[in-house]
Amino acid sequence: MHILVTNDDGVLAPGLLALAQAMREIADKVTVLAPDRNWSASGHVKTLHRPLRVIEVELEDGSFAWATDGAPSDCVALAQLGFISEKIDLVVSGINPNANIGHDVTYSGTVTAAMEAAIGGIPGVAVSLDKPDNLSGPVDFSGAKRAAQRVVQWLSQQNGLPAEVILSVNVPYRPAEKFKGYMITRQGLRIYRDELVRRVDPAGRPYYWIGGQVPTAIDEPGTDYGALSAGYVSVTPIQLDLTSSRTRDWLEERQFITSLDL
Fold this sequence. Notes:
Number of domains: 1
Radius of gyration: 20 Å
Number of strands: 11
Strand content: 25-35%
């Protein structure tokens, strides 16, 4: 099994190294291709209007990786389109040091890198760690490494995922032996408390910064956040088809098209 490892925090992020090391223990081959800088909250970006550069870099453990000036989804596209000559069987993105739950998946470069894989017909997994907001010192990725291995090993036995589906894996911040288990979940409700900060630069020109308090979430059973708060690894299947079937039926019941034709 050949695994492509990427992320949105940058090629030198400790979470990427942890994930690459975890995948090397279970895969035949691991290729690392990640952004050369942080792309957190970048969403699903594809660079079409400028060239992309790729260089080889050395990771902290002495292993080598590819770094590009493109976005996380560009990393996957580059690999799929031929920069990596060997066939890729699975894309694993992460380990993001913060959870990606609820509507976070639309912002997350970690998750959208896995989505880019699914668009290209390759199974994709995004791995995120629910690190405490007030944590000081190095992040312990050991639990997330083990969770990533377990999920990938299971997928290898199933020969992948259904088409146009990815798995978003969110891991509680604790050792693997203290997980309550693994739970199949749905997206929960994220509560954002953004604020617009207005400032004036030295030249007297206004500028704006989107800030605010750390987002929270509603603790509801069966959701990604509900599982995390209960000590479970949350595994959420996310599909690329964003069609709201319920709303489509609602529009048809109200003869939406007929009304427009009139």
